[in-house]
């Protein structure tokens, strides 16, 4: 192939092919140099520098395949002394992926493949190491993250929760716009400083517009929200409230089970052991006839268990109400001792 034809096929802005270094069955190596009129952009400060060239550096990068052959470009880069920091920097090339030794269009091909298959299979298809595939894919995802979530999109009603993404207690803090039911921001960690970044990102004016924040009850999230979104109504979400209710009921069960074992009340121990634990945590509507009878008998002979179950159901009834007034009535209900369940 003629150099001009390959230059047109590769379509490298402001660069030209000077030599085909190697052309074999599976790969082709091409030397690429910038046009003399091309101005160099400093990789240190990002500005265009003129003046005397200090030296040259050749970098080998991989491009998309050409006629079934893997293409390696030997790119000649110029080095200049930066006018700002006085250090030597290599010029940046717009169509090259920084620190990856691939062109941006090959990186985009990697990103499309990893969206469809695994890193290992994408590496096998492209003939590249799967670790390199992972690094390229991760860099593109980080770039997309910055474009979409910096600055963070503001919302009026949000939900904040943590999610584990790796072993050994590695967490992310997710911020969800509850009006559109989408994650609008996340940050690594679950401390107050992490959520602070979201509030700082949307600015004080948008923080004052937040009407409600649903939380899991974590003190770190509450302190951050109280500091930046002081006007917002802080709401503990239903899932974590029910979870805490179940934990409280189970704590009472374990305490009463310990007392029954000390006093050698074998019948009571049998009714409150670990195998019967799930009966106390189920909703009344989901109990079988046998389970309901078992729970009724337990509540009749053990007052702490009865009170714990009564309080649990009273709180659950609050979330079934349609207005604040009826919810308050639900909180005050069950003052007299009714039959249970």
Structure report:
- By secondary structure, the protein is an alpha+beta fold.
- Helix content is 45%, strand content 26%.
- The protein has 4 domains: 1-94, no CATH class; 96-150; 157-236, Nucleotidyltransferase, domain 5; 239-332, no CATH class.
- Strands 1, 2, 3, 4, 5, 6 and 7 form a 7-stranded mixed beta sheet that branches. A 5-stranded mixed beta sheet has the order 12-11-10-13-14.
- Strand 8 (96-97) and strand 9 form a beta hairpin.
- Mean pLDDT is 84; it is low at 335-340.
Outline of this structure?
By secondary structure, the chain is an alpha+beta fold. Helix content is 45%, strand content 26%. The strands form three sheets. Strands 1, 2, 3, 4, 5, 6 and 7 form a seven-stranded mixed β-sheet that branches. It has a five-stranded mixed β-sheet with strand order 12-11-10-13-14.
List keywords for this structure.
341 residues, alpha+beta, Nucleotidyltransferase, domain 5, 7-stranded mixed sheet, 5-stranded mixed sheet, 12 helices, 14 strands, disordered C terminus
Class derived from helix and strand content: alpha+beta
Largest sheet: 7 strands, mixed
What is the tally of helical segments?
12
Task: Calculate Rg over CA atoms.
Answer: 32 Å
Kindly give the count of domains.
4
Present the secondary structure layout.
Layout: H1 3-10, E1 15-23, E2 27-34, E3 40-42, E4 48-49, E5 55-66, E6 69-81, E7 88-92, E8 96-97, E9 102-103, H2 104-116, H3 119-126, H4 130-149, E10 157-166, E11 170-177, E12 182-188, H5 192-209, E13 212-215, H6 219-228, E14 233-236, H7 238-262, H8 266-272, H9 277-281, H10 289-301, H11 303-318, H12 324-332
Parallel strand pairs: 2-6, 10-13, 13-14
Antiparallel strand pairs: 1-2, 3-4, 3-7, 5-6, 6-7, 8-9, 10-11, 11-12
Helix pairs in contact: 2-4, 3-4, 5-6, 7-8, 7-11, 10-11, 11-12
């Amino acid at each position: 192939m003629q150099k001009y034809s390959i230059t047109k096929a590769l379509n490298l802005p402001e660069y030209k092919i000077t030599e085909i270094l190697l052309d074999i069955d599976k790969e082709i190596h091409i030397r690429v140099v910038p046009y003399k009129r091309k101005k160099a952009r400093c990789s240190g400060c990002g500005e265009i520098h003129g003046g005397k060239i200090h030296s040259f550096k050749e970098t080998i990068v991989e491009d998309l395949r050409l006629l079934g052959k893997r293409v390696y470009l030997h790119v000649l880069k110029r080095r200049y002394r930066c006018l700002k920091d006085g250090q030597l920097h290599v010029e940046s090339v717009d169509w090259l992926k920084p620190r990856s030794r691939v062109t941006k269009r090959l990186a985009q091909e990697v990103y499309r493949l990893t969206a469809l298959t695994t890193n290992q299979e994408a590496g096998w298809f492209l003939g590249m190491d799967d670790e390199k595939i992972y690094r390229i894919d991760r860099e593109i995802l980080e770039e997309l993250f910055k474009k979409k979530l910096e600055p963070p999109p503001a919302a009026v009603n949000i939900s904040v929760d943590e999610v584990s993404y790796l072993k050994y207690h590695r967490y992310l803090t997710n911020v969800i716009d509850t009006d559109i039911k989408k994650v609008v921001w996340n940050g690594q960690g679950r401390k107050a400083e992490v959520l602070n970044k979201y509030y700082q990102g949307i600015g004080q004016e948008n923080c004052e517009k937040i009407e409600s924040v649903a939380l899991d009850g974590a003190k770190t999230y509450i302190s951050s929200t109280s500091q930046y979104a002081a006007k917002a109504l802080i709401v503990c979400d239903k899932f974590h409230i029910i979870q805490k209710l179940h934990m409280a009921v189970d704590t009472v069960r374990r305490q009463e089970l310990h007392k029954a074992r000390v006093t050698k009340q074998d019948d009571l121990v049998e009714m409150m052991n670990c195998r019967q634990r799930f009966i106390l945590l189920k909703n009344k509507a989901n109990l079988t006839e046998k389970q309901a009878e078992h729970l009724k008998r337990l509540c009749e002979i053990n007052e702490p268990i009865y009170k714990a179950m009564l309080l649990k159901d009273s709180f659950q009834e609050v979330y079934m109400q349609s207005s604040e007034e009826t919810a308050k009535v639900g909180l005050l209900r069950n003052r007299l001792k009714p039959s249970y369940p």
